[in-house]
Design brief:
The chain is an alpha/beta fold. 43% of the residues lie in helices and 14% in strands. The protein is globular and about 75 Å long. The chain binds guanosine-5',3'-tetraphosphate (G4P).
Length: 318
């Protein structure tokens, strides 16, 4: 999909993480429980030097509970990794976060001499500010009160000897899995001007038809959606909701907005757009394609370099 990409403060964020990471004990990555794989940043492990990681599956109130359990088990089976589910309705998430971090770095946090130092990151709209505000509500935040803490970076004292640092800016994954682009757009993580809503709604409907047909039928009063094409389902939804253009034509743009809004608010039901197994398959296919693209690009680059003066001998001529 042609998503226009705005990496924003990527550079600033990478630099801030690199500067801070040596003195961090645990890295919390906030993920969207509806699309944990797609909302993760594959670069993070490398950036954080493979520090112990806590995956927080946020917005679990919107996600399919059975699939959240699969994702939690998936992450909990990884070395030096723990995973918990959270949502904004929890007024005291600090206890869970503290407990999970202590399990990951048991040697830290027991005293002021060895405080637990935690870094939190996540893609835009995943709920980082909401979570931090809730945490700040319980304890007073300290912002920029020590050397090296920039104005953009926030330190929160979660408990005695337990510090949480927010990462400034954004950490966007380079999207090599097509389905991840659609899922991120459907979730609301990508600004609406950066993608074609109709296309994203059609992809979303295609997935819902295969995995959540019952919810789709109940919400939009449709029958046997599995036998319909994606466009037919979108049209039927537009008609059902009175999104018409005149002469009986359906306003597909409006219908797409309805589908997306109702998915985002979970009016459609609690839905998760990927399982660990599915995402693993998408990722493997995406990595293969990406490697092919990279190889072609490099080959083109070599061709261009040689072309002007033809000075460079072909590699096999040496
Ligand atoms: P960010 O800092 O990571 O960019 O995200 P932020 O906290 O601003 O949250 C993005 C949106 O997600 C907000 O909704 C917020 O209310 C919602 N949100 C955050 N955590 C949860 C959660 O656990 N469950 C649910 N259901 N929603 C959550 P918004 O519509 O952009 O704003 P508003 O609802 O605050 O008006």
């Amino acid at each position: 999909m042609a998503i226009q990409w705005f990496p924003g403060h990527m550079h600033l964020t990478r630099k801030a993480i690199a500067e801070r990471i040596a003195e961090i004990d645990v890295v919390i990555e906030l993920l969207d429980a509806r699309l944990p794989g797609s909302s993760a940043n594959p670069m993070l492990a490398e950036l954080t030097g493979h520090k112990p990681g806590l995956k927080v599956l946020n917005k679990q109130d919107l996600a399919d509970p059975g699939r959240t359990a699969l994702w939690l088990a998936h992450y909990n089976a990884q070395p030096a990794t723990r995973a918990i589910g959270l949502d904004a309705s929890q007024t005291a998430p600090a206890r869970q976060l503290i407990e999970a971090c202590r399990q990951l770095a048991p040697q830290r946090g027991g005293s002021m001499a060895k405080p637990m130092r935690v870094l939190i990151c996540g893609i835009p709209n995943v709920g980082k500010s909401t979570l931090i505000n809730t945490l700040v509500g319980t304890r007073k935040a300290k912002t920029g009160d020590e050397a090296g803490v920039t104005k953009l970076e926030q330190r929160i004292v979660l408990a005695d000897g337990f510090y949480l640092w927010d990462t400034p800016g954004m950490l966007w994954p380079r999207i090599i899995v097509a389905q991840s682009g659609y899922n991120l757009a459907a979730s609301g993580a990508i600004g609406r001007n950066a993608f074609d809503e109709e296309l994203v709604a059609l992809e979303l409907l295609g997935y819902l038809k295969r995995h959540y047909a019952g919810l789709l039928e109940a919400r939009f009063k449709l029958d046997a959606v599995a036998g319909l094409g994606d466009e037919e389902v979108l049209e039927a939804i537009g008609r059902q909701r009175g999104a018409l253009l005149g002469k009986g034509r359906v306003n597909l743009q409006k219908a797409a907005e309805i589908v997306m809004n109702e998915f985002r608010s979970a009016s459609l039901g609690r839905i998760t757009l990927e399982t660990p197994e599915e995402f693993g398959q998408w990722l493997a296919a995406g990595q293969l394609l990406d490697a092919e693209r990279q190889a072609k690009k490099e080959a083109r680059g070599r061709g261009k370099k040689r072309a002007p003066g033809r000075e460079e001998a072909p590699p096999d001529a040496a």
